[in-house]
Write a structure and sequence with these properties.
Hypothetical Protein Pfu-838710-001, 8-stranded antiparallel beta barrel, alpha+beta, single chain
Length: about 200
């Protein structure tokens, strides 16, 4: 279990730019992950700008809730409070496929029980999903770059770069170098577009 502040810049890339960046830095790790997003029919969490997912890796899994902080540490980049509960792979597969529900114990369940009525948890069901091939790179200033190719239920795929760091100044320095090195430009439609938003957009 963990709870932390996540500060990051997320930028949607063209396939060409994705390939240029991914081949320009030293790879640290590469893996697949499957994301299943939960809400109820009333979209209670979505209306409150909260995302809830179960994420499966090849040998373990986790349940994650993301909420906006009441007071942000900075205003330049995306910032959320991330609450995680660890799951075994078997637990996650059961919750997603058989039970069709989230784990009803742990930090996330406690948060939901404290902030919503007692029946909310039982109404949360898988709504959509995404499948991501993730590559971690040793980026500028030894700041980790996350490069994602993600597929959605309707067959659509997109490409994204995430720069996560507790120091916003470091994120900005990395962005400045990437802009110069790759002629990186982007508009509002390309930044901070969450995977859950895109998964709903491309829900089959």
């Amino acid at each position: 279990m963990s709870k932390n502040i996540e500060i990051e810049s997320k930028i949607l890339l063209s396939q060409k730019l994705y390939q240029q960046i991914i081949t320009s830095f030293t790879p640290k790790n590469q893996f697949e992950q499957s994301n299943y997003y939960f809400d109820n029919q009333q979209q209670t969490l979505k209306k409150d700008a909260i995302s809830l997912r179960i994420r499966l890796y090849h040998d373990h899994a986790e349940q994650t809730l993301k909420v906006n902080p009441s007071h942000k540490k900075q205003n330049n980049f995306q910032e959320v409070i991330e609450i995680n509960d660890d799951l075994t792979l078997a637990e996650a597969k059961y919750l997603v496929n058989q039970a069709q529900q989230i784990m009803a114990t742990g930090q996330i369940a406690n948060y939901l029980q404290q902030n919503y009525n007692a029946t909310l948890i039982s109404t949360l069901k898988p709504q959509t999903w995404s499948q991501t091939n993730r590559t971690l790179l040793d980026g500028p200033y030894h700041c980790e770059l996350t490069l994602d190719k993600t597929c959605y239920p309707d067959g659509y795929s997109d490409y994204e770069m995430e720069i996560e760091n507790p120091d916003p100044a470091t994120i900005q320095k990395v962005l400045d170098q990437l802009k110069e090195q790759f002629n990186l430009t982007y508009d509002d439609d390309q930044i901070n577009q969450s995977k859950i938003k895109r998964a709903y957009l491309h829900k089959k």
